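Worked example 3 (structure in, sequence out).
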């Protein structure tokens, strides 16, 4: 079986023709702002990957999802990151439980309308807890009025909907967190330039600003206490999905380098095989934890396992990149910018929350029997 054959077959099953379409476009063109990749993804029906079949989606399993993301990441890291945010948002919506079954109608609309959903959930920021939202809200009618900004926010230019976590101050003065769904045409929503790096520019990671945006109650679900560093059930599930998908995407980008080495066939077979073994072993780790999630395992223990796999794959990607560039040789490096670009793109994994540095103490506490914290 050819390298990446399983992943590309899975992508073909869920999004027919997308891999072939992406393969025909130079990498540099796929990674630019305004590239055609997101339109191709929508046309192939990719927005419904994680939406249950009952709501018109594909109902992909976690294992199938990580295989799809590896295949996409190998063609376009920017598309992989952008679609990770969409799938993570959709998976969170599916578990959020909007009132009166509204989430099911919303999910059906996303699948049948091929809508793109951006993520405005809390992320790590200097001096702030990971679970602390950047958006704040006050009660307004049966819903909320939301103000603040999210930066970076992938899919900012192509999104149809924004999902976001917001801090809502209650009458007791304590903050609770809510999840809101905001249509892109809502008055008070604005997109501003933010991403200044050419690497992963195609993911459209600019700033989304909300000024007194009104969100009706049917598009709001109240969750946990923002002061609590222990993630609630919804946050834990969201972290698990995010880490699975984003890790698979970056492994896909590194796998594109491995594929280049295997196709060139110039390096010693022992070194070529070692490179492929490293990539496949990393994928096997990721598939293992995806199978556990598929079997229904959830909670802090699974999140800790997912984080361990993410950091191990992160290390493997670094080794893969260094060796692959060496084996491709200087003339390949000089003749095309693809290898240098993929290596730079893969570095992005270390910046996604929660970072290894941030989580080291928490993981040590967890393995000593204390509750897992991510704040």
């Amino acid at each position: 079986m050819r390298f990446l054959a399983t992943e590309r077959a899975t992508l073909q099953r869920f999004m027919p023709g997308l891999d072939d379409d992406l393969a025909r476009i130079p990498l540099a063109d796929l990674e630019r702002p305004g590239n055609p990749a997101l339109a191709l993804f929508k046309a192939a029906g990719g927005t419904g990957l994680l939406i249950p079949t009952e709501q018109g989606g594909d109902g992909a399993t976690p294992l199938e999802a990580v295989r799809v993301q590896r295949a996409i990441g190998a063609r376009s890291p920017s598309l992989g990151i952008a679609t990770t945010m969409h799938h993570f948002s959709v998976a969170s919506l599916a578990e959020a439980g909007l009132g009166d079954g509204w989430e099911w109608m919303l999910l059906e609309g996303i699948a049948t309308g091929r809508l793109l959903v951006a993520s405005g959930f809390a992320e790590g920021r200097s001096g702030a807890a990971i679970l602390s939202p950047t958006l704040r809200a006050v009660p307004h009618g049966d819903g909320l009025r939301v103000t603040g900004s999210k930066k970076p926010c992938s899919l900012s230019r192509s999104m149809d909907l924004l999902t976001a976590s917001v801090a809502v101050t209650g009458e007791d003065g304590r903050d609770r967190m809510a999840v809101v769904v905001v249509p892109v045409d809502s008055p008070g929503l604005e997109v501003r330039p933010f991403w200044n790096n050419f690497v992963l520019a195609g993911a459209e990671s600019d700033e989304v600003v909300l000024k007194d945006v009104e969100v009706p109650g049917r598009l709001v679900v109240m969750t946990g206490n923002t002061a609590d560093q222990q993630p609630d059930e919804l946050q834990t599930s969201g972290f698990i999905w995010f880490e699975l998908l984003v890790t698979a995407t970056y492994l896909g980008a590194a796998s594109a380098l491995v594929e280049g080495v295997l196709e060139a066939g110039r390096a010693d077979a022992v070194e070529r095989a070692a490179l492929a073994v490293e990539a496949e072993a990393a994928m096997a780790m990721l598939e293992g934890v995806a199978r556990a999630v598929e079997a229904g395992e959830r909670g802090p223990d699974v999140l800790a396992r997912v984080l361990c796999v993410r950091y191990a794959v992160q290390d493997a990607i670094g080794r893969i990149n260094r060796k692959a560039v060496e084996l491709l040789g200087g003339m390949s490096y000089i003749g095309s910018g693809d290898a240098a670009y993929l290596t730079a793109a893969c570095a992005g994994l270390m910046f996604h929350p929660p970072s290894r540095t941030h989580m080291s103490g928490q993981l040590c506490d967890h393995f000593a029997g204390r509750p897992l914290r991510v704040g």
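Notes: The longest helix spans residues 233-264. The chain is about 50% helix and 15% strand.
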